[in-house]
Specification:
259 residues, eight-stranded parallel beta barrel, 46% helix
């Protein structure tokens, strides 16, 4: 296991109860405001996911789409994000991942991406529009720099592919709870819970459930099935209302037994 993956896995496995991976869009709501939000989130969450704004975030619902639009209007790009992280604006023991579509990483230049991520102390990447079958070049680069590449699975992922993706995932497996986009509030029926059980049974690393996680009741409901959750749109909404995202994370904590 590469160093970045190990740091992410350990942060999840040592969480008190369900682990919280918190997503924030870089540069939202303002350049200065983002630094404050990031610091609050980094202190409260077990893992931090920093979203790289993109013009066509196909997996994201309206909340994150709007946050990305604002961030782009603020002039945010990957270079700015890496500089913020290099400056230590999120000084924390929580591992930091970048969640971004492949184009910004390609535009930055894969030839210099690995060193830049290392200098910014990024532990892993999530690239939702990069199929595993087409990720060999990026995976090789990240492996060289001991940076994890997290794989996403969905309820429609066939069993054989599910096992392959889980085996290849670094840090944790991101189990998307719905075939839609982010931002809604997901209701978990038995099929959803059975799906999460299937993911957990084949995964050598922790499984986190994401998309539509908004309240502590959902976290508690999922605790027997996954090691934790990814929370994004609910945090962005809280930041947009001027609330402290760290307080929202604290309110999601469920300290009972987890999968």
């Amino acid at each position: 296991m590469v160093e970045g993956a190990r740091a992410i896995t350990e942060a999840i496995e040592t969480a008190e109860g369900s682990a919280i991976c918190a997503y924030v869009t870089a540069g939202f709501p303002t350049l200065e405001g983002f630094s404050h939000s990031l610091l609050s989130v980094a202190k409260a969450a077990d893992v931090v996911e920093v979203g790289v704004p993109f013009t066509d975030p196909m997996a994201d619902g309206l909340t994150i789409q709007q946050a990305s639009h604002v961030a782009l209007e603020n002039g945010v790009n990957l270079e700015w994000i890496l500089e913020i992280l290099r400056a230590g604006s999120a000084a924390s023991e929580a591992p930091i991942l970048l969640m971004g579509y492949y184009n910004p990483f390609l535009a930055y230049g894969l030839d210099r991406l690995g060193d830049a991520l290392t200098e910014a102390q990024v532990s892993g990447l999530i690239v939702p529009d990069l199929p595993y079958d087409e990720s060999a070049e990026l995976r090789a680069l990240l492996d060289t720099h001991e940076i994890a590449l997290v794989q996403l699975v969905t309820p429609s992922t066939p069993d054989e592919r599910l096992a392959r993706l889980a085996a290849a995932s670094g840090g944790f497996v991101y189990a998307v709870t719905t075939t839609g986009v982010t931002g809604g509030e997901t209701a978990f029926d038995q099929d959803s819970l059975d799906y999460l059980t299937r993911v957990r049974e084949v995964s050598p690393v922790p499984v986190l459930a994401g998309f539509g996680i908004r309240n502590a009741n959902q976290v508690k409901e999922l605790a027997p099935y996954v090691a934790g959750v990814v929370v994004g749109s609910a945090l962005i909404d809280a930041i947009d209302r001027g609330e402290d995202p760290g307080e929202l994370i604290a309110g999601l904590r469920f300290e009972g037994a987890t999968a």
